[in-house]
Amino acid sequence: MSAYVIARLRKASLHPDIAEYIERIPGTFEPYGGRFLVHVTPHEVLEGTWDEDVVMIGFPGIEEARAWWDSPAYQEIAPLRSRHIDGDIILIKGVPEGYDATKTAAALRGALEG
Q: Which InterPro entries match (predicted)?
């Protein structure tokens, strides 16, 4: 089951460390099957407010995503970003192939009734 690292990053002033981080990060996640799905692309707010930038990296599974995050290669470059950009970063599992939300709704209805 796929997994995703999602970052909501606050706007920051440009700094050479950020350019270096962006240059180096793809090499850190590629060995784990990771790839950018979203990388600070323009977004449209449909509800609420969202002034931050979004980065989303997809991995084949949660183990690969955790291994990337904990890897010496990533940990070496992480401060290049974290010293200059505040944000929130989460790791989340995707839904399995064939996921059916109506089954989740049925389980919720059962819990409400019982």
A: Dimeric_a/b-barrel (IPR011008), DUF1330 (IPR010753)
What's residue 100's pLDDT? 94
Q: Residue 89 to residues 4, 52, 63, 97, 107: CA-CA distances in angstroms?
A: 10, 12, 17, 25, 30
* Count of structural domains, the chain: 1
- Structural domain of residue 73, as residue ranges? 3-113
The two structure tokens encoding residue 88? 């929130």
3-state secondary structure the chain: CCEEEEEEECCCCCCHHHHHHHHHHHHHHHHHCCEEEEECCCCCCCCCCCCCEEEEEEECCHHHHHHHHHCHHHHHHHHHHHCCCCEEEEEEECCCCCCCHHHHHHHHHHHHHC
**Mean pLDDT per 10-residue interval, the chain, length 114 residues:** 96 93 97 97 94 97 98 98 96 94 93 89
Partners of 93 in beta bridges = 3
